[in-house]
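Exercise: predict the structure of this protein bound to adenosine-5'-diphosphate.
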Amino acid sequence: MARIVQKFGGTSVGDLDRIRNVAQRVKAEVDAGHEVAVVVSAMAGTTNQLVQWSKDIGPLHDAREYDAIVATGEQVTVGLLAIALQNIGVDARSWLGWQVPVKTDSTHGSARIEAIEADDIDARLSQGQVAVVAGFQGISEEGRITTLGRGGSDTSAVALAAALNADRCDIYTDVDGVYTTDPRIMPTARKLDQITFEEMLEMASAGAKVLQTRSVAMGMRHNVKIQVRSSFNDTPGTLVVDEDTQMERQKISGIAYSADEAKITVVGLDDKPGIAAVMFEALAHDNVNVDMIVQSASTDASRTDITFSVAAGDADKALSVLESVKDKLPYQRVDAASNIAKVSIIGTAMRTQAGIANKMFASLAEKGVNLQVISTSEIKISVLIDSAYTELAVRTLHDAFELHEA
Ligand code: ADP
Ligand code: ASP
Ligand code: MG
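Solution:
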């Protein structure tokens, strides 16, 4: 007997027939003698609609009320799945975040899980009852509903698996596993049998939304055995593994992209200690999440330019922060460009193999793709490009690194 957490994403619970299909998948594990907790997302499209309504209702944005609104999608699906399970003879009940409770900090809209007090669920599981838990939501110390950021049900599932000491966390989605790149834009993308935690973390943070980045970090920290697989077939999925257990070694493991980025360049800053600190402290204070940062020497030796990227949705906020610190931080001007994409290649083999960056840049150059910013980590190289070239860049790199071949 094992203890299993199964997580079903929005498409997998997209209508009543799909919820009935999910119930059958849960029943199969119960019939096999396992203890099962299920985490579900809202029906596909629901959260987008709720986000839209919370914006359209009026100009004031109270993030606590935003969370009260967007968390409701999951309340519907937990109830429906619990009923679907009961109808096929499986003992089940629903749990909202606050009922578990899933305790989070108060960063509404992207709260962090601080603790899951899973004793009640634990006891019910031991009695053979299936727990159907609402993903994406928790409760703050102030007793307010919080949400974990888009895609957050993955994190709910992995955190619950850790809290329940589960043997496995199976993430069921609408693709067969983690692919070399998004199979929606690259039909010849190959499903990976395994990917290391570290690679998956980089893939997710570089834009591969098949797993939320925080879920991977959580799994890594708590040693949760994560498998990504399809809820529509029985094909074996992708196991997220530690590096020393990884079998296949390729030059690179995958390519990720994020199409909605903006690039901001602050031109003509004084070249003296503390400039970057003031700038990024102000941005962080207003919760602007900065991704790539490049500082370059300008032609005038006493001046410097700093370029950084943010999610396109944060660009206006970043610009107003820069405007507000102009007194403390004199600069000549700010250039902003939206329609920017980030394309990244990821692989642990980069640690030991030479020539990977070179190959990336040369193959993009051959297609006339201009690289606006380059940044590297130990196992990742990212470039910012004009977003019109996103798909071309992903396809070009997928071919150049022969990722379709096993
Ligand atoms: P769910 O609703 O089940 O959480 P998501 O839409 O959040 O599903 O994530 C699954 C989607 O992630 C896939 O449909 C696919 O388009 C996208 N995706 C992006 N990169 C990858 C990748 N490398 N491998 C698999 N899927 C990917
Ligand atoms: N329903 C939430 C979202 O759409 C959480 C999730 O699906 O993981 O972002
Ligand atoms: Mg998701």
